[in-house]
């Protein structure tokens, strides 16, 4: 049987649109790209299962080999939407130019599956002792539904996991989490000449801001992780809008803020801290302060620096591991086993017009994947 070429697979992945977005006018299913992937993985000898995590949103789970443990190679099959008019190349086609592959998802990260297929094609499996698993998730760019669904229902427990997000082939052993909330203060508008006619939402927001800034200082004082360039959690006040004119008592004011917790701070724990910080001002102004999440929260993630998997992959990649500031599916998948984020292409190109993957990553990536499979699934 003629196995698909690296470029055929890469081009098939990029030309099969699988955008996920919280904006329904952009949001697509990923069934077509998962079906293509399933066909190629069967061609190279994997058993494949498609799991529908939500309507039209699929995870693909593939397995080669028997036994316990083994290595899981994971990634997401969706992409973000693209800025129409800002691309010089067709987003849904693989274009070769300037020693790069251009296209939506070339780096972040459908291309990773083309690298996996190319690596496994060349392997002599006769001495395999542990299974190799491949996971392609849905909806990473929005709710991380696919990774959560897989982790909650995982049919196996691998020894190790590599998530092929674009890290320029540097093993990433940790990242902070992300929580973003809106605080909406509802006052009562009235003529500015008599403050007794209303309840000023901006004045209440002033108390909310004070409480959040106290919490920010507390987070800095109480949490510290020397493995991060910014070694404490951050709390940023990012957007505020309230009122409409100087001669009206402000009836409504809304604030958006985000928190980036260090790994080890649970989302529940953080939520308790955030609630606790606003407790006093909420008691003072009952039913006037409402907090709602702006998106699904993602916890931080860390694979202990001292873990042998970190040293093993550092040696295999010939480069020290790092921590980063963007979020991935690692907080979920690492509930199953030690996990590193490691893949071709640069995060600088993710979510950008003219996203590309430089050719210089091709051979080293196939080499690293092949060596990792041998190291963790072969005698
Ligand atoms: Zn990604």
Automatic annotation (TrEMBL):
One of its GO terms (molecular function) is zinc ion binding. SUPFAM superfamilies: Bacterial exopeptidase dimerisation domain, Zn-dependent exopeptidases. One of its GO terms (cellular component) is cytoplasm. Signal peptide: none annotated. Gene3D superfamilies: 3.30.70.360, Zn peptidases (3.40.630.10). Pfam families: M20_dimer, Peptidase_M20. Its main location: cytoplasm. The active site is at 78, 140. Homodimer. This is Acetylornithine deacetylase.
